[in-house]
Amino acid sequence: MKEKVITSNKLSRKFGDFVAVDEVTFEVSKGEIFGFLGANGAGKTTAMRMLCGLLAPSSGSATVAGYDVSTQPEMVKKNIGYMSQKFSMYEDLTVKENFLFYGGVYGLKRKAIIERLSMMLGLLNLSHVMNSLVGSLPLGWKQKLSFSLAMLHQPGIIFLDEPTGGVDPITRRQFWDLIYEAAYDGITIFVTTHYMDEAEYCDRVSIMVDGSIKALDSPENLRKTYNAASMDGVFQELARGTSTK
Amino acid sequence: MKQYLAFVKKEFRHIFRDKRTLLILFGMPVAQVMIFGFALNNEIDNAGVAIYDMSGDYESTLLQNRLNASSYFFIERECESTDCIEESFRQGKARVGIIIPHNFGKDLLTGQKPEIKIVSDASDPNQAQVLTSYATAIILSHVRDRASVVQQAPVVNAIPRMIFNPELKAVYMFVPGVMGFILLLVSAMMTSLTIAREKELGTMELLLVSPLRSWHIIFGKVTPYWLLSFMNAIIVVLLGITVFDMPMNGSVPLLLASCLLFSLTALALGIFISSKANSQMTAMFVSMMGLLLPTILLSGFIFPIENMPIVLRVISNIIPAKWFILIIKGLMIKGSGMSILWKPISILAFITLLFGIAAIKNVKPRLNQ
Question: Do both B345 and B224 map to the same domain?
Fold first, then answer.
């Protein structure tokens, strides 16, 4: 039995009468790649915001890295990395300056930041962009840099919110190599995506429909259960299942 | 504390990287003071006079000489008709016309009270008013002198003396106004813009999932602009003193403290705006319309508050710049101390507190949306 780094117990969030997330329960083990799927408006983002300590749950509870998201959000934030679907490095600063800033925000020393940045850039074959303005780099590179940025303070868990939106297939493939490497090092990956082929890369996948989790298993088991050839088929099946209800 | 410093450093990097921001920050105050100081000039200096002397005697010549001798007027044209005066107004050569009636000298010496007509070109009403009153003053004092010589009549003499600004220099008005304007522009507009920019670009999201507290973000944003606007205020004061001979009669520490206080007011306003505005466009628009325009119009910077209708006079009380300008004028020109300035200073401090609380209350939940 592996250590559980994310546990969610009947986690719910209401906005007025609207229930965005309805009693969601799941667990994620250390080093797992956990795919968090759902159509737009299914409640993925709300659930993720609660897990990141950005939004207080209406009821239920969740722990991330051993800290309660509603009572210890600051501790949760210290122990997670986050990469948003919107590119979020400062374009008018250089790569180095961006890393120095975020490193400083997590309380890292300048020397340690530079060392780690050089190491990460070396792995990405991007050592030459250290002093380039971020705004001048191609999107694929920026995306990889964002991922490195989220890993800068060596968090145990990384939340990726549609990390590969708008990126070409080759870069997406390379990006998933980065994710595998991180998972191999024992980092837990919590990823939302719209690409069903990417769902196949995950260890386990949850599919959210109308605020609750309708399916949660490995991609292989899900295909068997729903008798579908691909994850796309599973997703279609689940989505159709609710629309006829 | 370390996180806060990292934030401030990053903010300074943004500012120094962007040449346009730098230009606004440091070019603007200098340009403003120069423009207002040199170009917007209400002072009267050698205005042309068209004179129609119907009498042409010794007394009327004396009067003409008196006008010509003052530094405010010179006789541009001697007319033979009223049409000629209008003509020279149209040509833009003269701005005041003076008509001396028949038998001016004789009437004056025999106590007949001759009537002199002063006509002025009111296409610029402010200037016309000033010119008319200057001309009236000169003529009256001359006539009084002559009449008393002849008749030895007891005449009361009123001798006006303008103190604090004896030369009626407009720049004394503008320097405090420009200071207020610049501090507001730099502090309020710039902070609201940069916070809106982070929201627009999505970097705010990353800041929020980081361990930064909201006070880190707010004070990190505010500190660089606070320092810069303070530097600006000093530049404007120095320009006023060196280039335009502004006096500095009051306490310098009090002046600096007031500048710091007012930029704090402006920063609170800026944060308040940014808590409502989600894009740079909105932030810009709101700061322009909601802050800069009322400041120019209602703070007494350009238009005197005393001449406004009662409604506007009441509204002007909530314009922070009005109080700031009062304080700066009192300090620099009149040399007033705390015993007199405590009232505007405490009003300003109160407004700052009010907006500061509103800003922080609004920003906290709003940042998370």
Answer: yes
Q: Is the separation of the CB atoms in B347 and B256 below 8 Å?
A: no
CATH number at B81 reads 3.40.1710.10
CA distance B75 to B261: 51
Q: What pairs with residue A62 in β-bridges?
A: A8
**pLDDT per residue as tens digits for the range A189-209:** 999 888 888 888 899 999 888
Contact A80 B209 (CB under 8 A): yes
Chain B residue closest in CA terms to A46: B369
H/E stretch holding B283 reads: helix B280-286
Q: Which residue carries 């410093």 as its tokens?
A: B5
> What are the pLDDT digits (tens) for B151-174?
655 556 667 677 777 666 667 777
Radius of gyration, CA atoms only, chain A:
18
Sheet with A4-15, edge to edge strand ranges = A18-29, A4-15, A59-64, A67-68
Reported ipTM: 0.84
Question: How many CB atoms neighbour CB B261 within 10 A?
Answer: 18
Give how many domains chain B has, as a whole number.
Answer: 2
3-state class of A31 per DSSP?
Answer: coil
A143-157, A194-208, B19-33, B147-161: least confident range = B147-161
| Mean of the per-residue pLDDT values of chain B | 84
Same domain, B335 and B312: yes
- Considering the domain architecture, whether residues B205 and B230 belong to the same structural domain is answered as yes
Q: Which residues of A touch B5 (CB under 8 A)?
A: 104
Residues B186 and B131 in one domain: no
Q: Residue B188 and residue B356: Cα distance in Å, rounded?
A: 12
User: In a 10 Å sphere around its CB, with 0-12 CB exposed, 13-18 middle and 19+ buried, how is residue A152 labelled?
Assistant: buried
Q: Answer yes or no: is B161 within a domain.
A: no
Q: If you write DSSP's letter for every residue of A131-152 in order, what string do you get? A: TSBGGGS-HHHHHHHHHHHHHT
Query: In terms of residue numbers, what domain contains B218?
Result: 11-40+169-367
Q: pLDDT class for A243, splitting at 50, 70, 90? A: very low
> Which residues have CB under 8 Å from A105's CB, separation 6+?
B3, B6, B7, B207, B210, B211, B212
Three-class SS state of B118: strand
DSSP code for A18: E
CATH number for the region A1-79+156-219 comes to 3.40.50.300
Q: What are B's interface residues with A at a Cβ cutoff of 8 A?
A: 2-3, 5-7, 9-10, 13-14, 17-18, 201-203, 205-213, 368
Chain A residues contacting B, CB < 8 Å?
Answer: 52-55, 74, 77-78, 80, 82, 84, 86-93, 97, 100-107, 159
The DSSP code sequence of A153-172 is: T--SEEEEESTTTT--HHHH
Q: What is the DSSP string of A64-93?
A: ETTEETTT-HHHHHHTEEEE-SS--S-TTS
Mean pLDDT over A40-52 rounds to 87
Strand partners, A217: A205
